[in-house]
Design brief:
The complex is a heterodimer of chains A (73) and B (459). By secondary structure, chain A is mainly β. Chain A is 0% helix and 55% strand. Chain B contains 16 helices and 22 strands. Chain B has 3 domains: 6-105, Rossmann fold (3-Layer(aba) Sandwich); 147-204, Dna Ligase, domain 1; 209-458, ATP-grasp fold, B domain (D-amino Acid Aminotransferase, Chain A, domain 1), CATH 3.30.470.20. The chains are: A mainly beta (73), B alpha+beta (459).
């Protein structure tokens, strides 16, 4: 079992967290949705796995490259 | 109408700075508002006074009617300028401002409300003899009566559109009558699922379209002038990127008819203040159709200011304080050609994804006949809470070619570090041979995408 970081490629405001800890997610399935400059941008699972941790809260500003969740793969 | 001595600017960034500048020119006081995220910005520093209105999110600050009215009362402002975006086309806000005894610097609330209702706006345009895109009645899900006749009247190819759709979603092209019924049924069922409303309508498809708009100014008494057109065909994700006036390769006859139609619409509605009548133009036949009317000052208003020498915001303020007499059309003239490029904090190579961040270096170019309207200064941070526009760069030349070259030069000289921007993409658009030839259309960026992104990837 390995842990994989879910990173955001852009700076934005966490608008909605759509996955829960323990959820099984497929590759490209959104974990959360960021809001940045009037756009909604999903941050998705880089590969299939189980959500081990969500490291941010709704309303929080995250910067480009930061780890927002971890998956067990 | 009342005296206007102190204007509350219900906006932020570059347009707030722009309104403050015109207030200063007229000797009128200005009051800025700002969210927690915007406290360090130039518009806050430049206004005569500034008041905080809430947390960064627009819903909790710039869109808070109650807070804005509170600040107006506290500061003793007697008028409100809404800028563009936010509450600028919110009729309820305009009414609340007037109810509070303040002067609304803009169109009457009824005009804002009428033009905001797209169906009603279309009817008002038709009544004023302004052509609209040929279209059909609505067909609710399961109802296809008269569909073939409606399609024949419009002509093929045509579009089947979901009534509740928008932004290109729920829209399909039909080339031949045999395809019509199947596509109509499929679109109705898709729309019912996606939008909870299966209604569709038919509309003429314009294979190669241009976006041309007429800047108008109404005096509120049935008199109005046009301030010429702007071509805004270069867009990405339905957002304008480059705007210019005159529109290249547009026959004078089409230009005259569009201007006359726009003025007729303003006269018919006794339109007051600055506005824009937007048309979609068939790039081959130059047939034009009313799209919508924007009842506010627009982002690209400097293009018009550069060629006419007018200050549109000062005109809005003067009209609101009863100091502007109606202009006759022949009092307005234009000189040369102006092109505007919108600098966005975004990454063209990654599908124009937003790129907020700190402007480590930000040195707008300074040159003759170059105007830069920027919302930020060096060292300031572009936050993710608002739209990605950082600055507008406008070049004025005696010819289109001169303006185009001068704008390329100005963009190349624009030093910007700390964020990703579309600067090189803008330069590539302006340098593109199709654009240089004046062959603009709304599919330009998609069609030339690979070519336009090359220098970005290389640079």
């Amino acid at each position: 079992m390995a842990l994989v970081d879910v990173k955001t490629e852009i700076t934005g405001n966490v608008w909605k967290i759509v996955a829960k800890v323990g959820d099984q997610v497929e590759e490209d399935i959104p974990i959360l949705i960021l809001e940045s400059m009037k756009m909604e941008i999903p941050v998705s699972a880089p590969e299939a796995g189980r959500v081990q941790a969500i490291l941010v809260e709704e309303g929080q500003v995250v910067s480009e490259g930061s780890v927002v969740a971890r998956l067990e793969v | 109408m009342a005296p206007v001595t102190k204007v509350l600017v219900a906006n932020r960034g570059e347009i707030a700075r722009r309104v403050v500048a015109s207030c200063r020119r007229l000797g009128v006081g200005s009051v800025a508002v700002y969210s927690e995220a915007d406290a360090p910005l130039a518009h806050v520093a430049e206004a005569d006074e500034a008041h905080p209105i809430g947390p960064p999110r627009a819903q909790e600050s710039y869109l808070r009617v109650d807070r804005l009215l509170e600040v107006a009362a506290q500061s003793g402002a007697d008028a409100v300028h809404p800028g563009y975006g936010f509450l600028s086309e919110n009729a309820a806000f305009a009414e609340a401002v007037e109810r509070a005894g303040l002067t609304w610097i803009g169109p009457r609330p009824e005009s804002i409300r009428d033009m905001g209702d797209k169906q009603l706006a279309r009817e008002i345009a038709l009544r004023a003899d302004v052509p609209v895109v040929p279209g059909s009645r609505r067909f609710e899900q399961g109802d296809l009566r008269g569909l073939d006749d409606a399609a024949a009247a419009i002509g093929y190819p045509l579009l089947v559109k979901a009534a509740a759709g928008g932004g290109g979603i729920g829209m399909r092209r039909v080339d031949r009558s045999e395809q019509l019924a199947d596509i109509a049924v499929a679109t109705q069922s898709m729309a019912a699922k996606a939008f909870g409303n299966g209604a569709i309508f038919l509309e003429r498809y314009i294979p190669k379209a241009r976006h041309v708009e007429i800047q108008v100014f109404g005096f509120g008494n049935g008199e109005a002038v046009h301030l010429f057109e702007r071509d805004c065909s270069l867009q990405r994700r339905f957002q304008k990127v480059i705007e210019e006036s005159p529109a290249p390769k547009l026959p004078q006859e089409a230009r005259d008819r569009m201007s006359a139609a726009a003025v007729a619409l303003c006269r018919a509605t006794h339109y007051r203040s600055a506005g824009t009548v937007e048309f979609v133009v068939d790039a081959d036949s130059f047939a034009f159709y009313f799209l919508e009317m924007n009842t506010r000052i627009q982002v690209e208003h400097p293009v018009t200011e550069m060629i006419t020498g007018l200050d549109l915001i000062a005109m809005q303020i003067d009209l609101a304080r009863d100091r502007l007499l109606p202009l006759p059309q022949d009092a307005v003239s234009r000189k040369g050609h102006a092109i505007e490029a919108r600098l966005y904090a975004e990454n063209p190579a990654k599908n124009f994804m937003p790129s907020p961040g700190r402007l480590e270096r930000f040195r707008p170019p300074q040159a003759d006949r170059i105007r830069v309207d920027a919302g930020y200064r060096e060292g300031e941070t572009i936050t993710p809470f608002y739209d990605p526009m950082v600055a507008k760069v406008i070049a004025h030349g005696s010819t289109r070619e001169e303006a185009r070259r001068s704008l390329i030069g100005a963009l190349k000289a624009f030093e910007i570090e700390g964020i990703r921007s579309n600067r090189d993409f803008l330069i590539a658009c302006l340098a593109d041979e199709t654009f240089a030839a004046g062959d603009v259309s709304t599919d330009f960026i998609d069609r030339r995408r690979a070519h336009l992104l090359e220098p970005v990837a290389a640079g």
